[in-house]
Amino acid sequence: MDIRLYNTLTREKQVFSPQNPQRVTMYVCGPTVYSYAHIGNARPPVAFDVLFRLLRRIYGEDHVVYAANITDIDDRIITASAETGRPIAEITALYERVYREDMAALGVIEPTFRPHATEHIDGMVAIIEQLIAKGHAYQGKDGVLFHVPSMADYGKLSRQPRDEIVAGARVEVDAGKRDPADFALWKAAKPGEPREARWPSPFGEGRPGWHVECSAMAKAVLGETLDIHAGGLDLIFPHHENEIAQSECAHGKPMARYWLHNGFLSIDAEKMSKSIGNVKLVHDLLKHYDGETMRFALMSAHYRQPLDWTEALLTQSKATLDRLYTALRRMKDVDADDVDAPKAVLAALCDDLNTPQALAKLSALATEANKSPERDWPRLKGEMLAAGRLLGLLQRDPDDWARGDASEAQRIDAMVAARVAARRAKDFAEADRIRKELAAEGVEIMDGPDGSTWRKA
Ligand code: AMP
Ligand code: ZN
């Protein structure tokens, strides 16, 4: 079965054909580990985890090589270190660990490689040297810059007009730019910056620009031309455009053949942002929702479409999973046939990762199982489990899933009890905080003469 993927580079859905079916390569830009990941950050790892699973199913487990990097040096990390007084390595180690735990809770398989930027400085320096030697880069006042007009087809991924390109590059180091669109490859160390944030190089002490980190890591672990390169929509410009510029001018070959981008996640129809105060961290959400429910919610929209994260979406996702696990629970005493995922589920995923359709087919299987005589159960159970494996769902003991409900109630009971205790201690701020936290998940507390009870809206 052919996989068809929408390629941002060509603006069309194309049949996917890897350079070498024995070694299919995929690179997804990973997190900058200076803080907790929010639920929007989880969208690319989950969407492209589905692709990783599908590629492994089509080409074989050992024939797909997937790299998702960790950006462990960057301005935001330096700022976090300066603000907290903690060493950079401590901050990045902590948030990388949390990130990996969060992603595992969302059913994300560990990529084949997790390159760290700080382990590939030599590769970055090598690319910059090549770019200078070929006339694509030059030493500016504050480091080395890529000279955008030196690349004839610069801008081919984002297809932006020149003024947008210039506006996008405005935030980059300005000193000594030959062209306003030029961007930083190497940033000279500034006085007062920590030792941990500077490396020696032929261009002086400093650190790499963010874009060149990915060019070097992708090359080091996967090669000069990747099959698939992916990330969120916001990375098309400038990040991916600049990765293309660096890698293609340095190596003289295409950086990647298929460029995939996921759409943005909003919260209750609003952009997620610190200024609005609606940023939802994966780490916090996991205290309230099961990781599998969150994964289901993330897959409920097509990856290229916007996804609005709401309480209703989570409730609906949980209800559907309940129904699927209930069907599996009814069949728990039969041995599942060792079958492949049904064609309809595979076909949906092969069509540019149509997860909503794949999930609908999975639901249809549960409906069928509920209506079918017992003799059909081994096949239906096998098909549900195989489809679930492909989607990263339904791999738990259905009894455990059902017990999850009980533990949720216990958790809410405990929070209600903590609020009662806070009120007794006259810590009304804490009591109010707990009430608000419960209200946010749709739990209403009812205070009566005999104590407090709760109900779910
Ligand atoms: P960052 O750590 O900011 O570099 O982001 C990591 C990844 O999350 C990138 O691929 C971004 O495109 C993606 N991303 C950030 N915010 C959102 C969002 N609201 N919806 C979907 N993807 C996002
Ligand atoms: Zn990248």
Descriptive key words:
15 strands; four-stranded parallel β-sheet; 15% strand; single chain; binds zinc ion; four-stranded antiparallel β-sheet; globular; alpha/beta; binds adenosine monophosphate; 457 residues
Task: Bin the helical content.
Answer: 40-55%
Number of DSSP strands? 15
- Round the Cα radius of gyration to an integer and report it: 25 Å
- Number of helical elements: 15
Silhouette:
globular
Strand order of the largest sheet: 4-3-9-10
Bound molecule types: adenosine monophosphate, zinc ion
> What sequence of helices (H) and strands (E) makes up the elements?
EEEHEHHHEEHEEHEHEEEHHEHHHHHHEE
As a percent range, the share of strand residues is 5-15%
**Could you tell me how far the N terminus lies from the C terminus, measured between alpha carbons in angstroms?**
45 Å
Q: Can you tell me the residue ranges where pLDDT is under 50 for at least 5 consecutive residues? A: none
Mean pLDDT: 94
Structural class: alpha/beta
* Largest sheet composition: 4 strands, parallel
Overview of this protein structure:
The structure is a single chain. The protein has 457 residues and is an alpha/beta fold. The chain contains 15 helices and 15 strands. The strands form five sheets. It has a four-stranded parallel sheet. Helix 4 (121-133) crosses helix 7, helix 6 (210-222) crosses helix 7 and helix 11 packs antiparallel against helix 12 (355-371). The longest helix has 27 residues, at 398-424. It starts with a strand and ends with a strand. It binds adenosine monophosphate and zinc ion. Residues 29, 214, 239, 243 line the site of zinc ion.
